[in-house]
Amino acid sequence: MKHTRIAPGSFIEELAWLALSVHNAACGIPVAVKLRDSSGVLIEGGEFIIAAPECDSLDCLFSGDHVREVRISNGRHRGKIMFASTVVDAAGRRVAAIGIVDTLGMLSLERFVSDRDRVEWQIGGCSPRR
Q1: pLDDT at residue 128, rounded to an integer
Q2: Distance between CA atoms of residues 6 and 49, nearest Å
Q3: d(Cα 112, Cα 108) in Å, to the nearest integer?
Q4: Which of 98, 102, 103, 119 could form a disulfide with 107 if both were Cys (CB 3.0 to 4.6 A apart)?
């Protein structure tokens, strides 16, 4: 089985497949993913939209909180809320960010954190926080 390694110098295509999995698991809700110092990818309707303006809203996670609500400033989802989290490598560096666009206005930060923990557990084998 081929493994995806997310680290400085990774390619956005590697991370985009993880975002597609989150998109599918979240019943098709748009998902944005961005590597530090790189353009991002928006997954919407099962399609990859490279360098989507929505991804620029994820930049604030590289210097702030690990999990937060972000208001999208550009693109077709401008003004909507995105629940976003950093992706941290083994050395503790924030190498990427991923966010779920709340297109229906139905998500909460508490639910997002809970779902994020479950995804981390599934891909990393760690027990989820309670």
Answers
A1: 46
A2: 20
A3: 6
A4: 102
